[in-house]
Q: What sequence folds into this?
């Protein structure tokens, strides 16, 4: 057993759809210039 706990970090992005106004989150180290809304399926630029 080690003396220390291990950990990691992440960046969490929050989005609001421009059409249906629902929100979602996406944890990633880089973000695409376009996203699909997981609620209504609309693809738009950020």
A:
């Amino acid at each position: 057993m080690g003396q220390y706990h291990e950990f990691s970090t992440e960046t969490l992005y929050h989005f609001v759809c421009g059409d249906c106004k629902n929100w979602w989150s996406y944890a990633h180290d880089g973000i695409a210039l376009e996203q699909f809304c997981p609620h209504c399926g609309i693809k738009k630029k950020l």
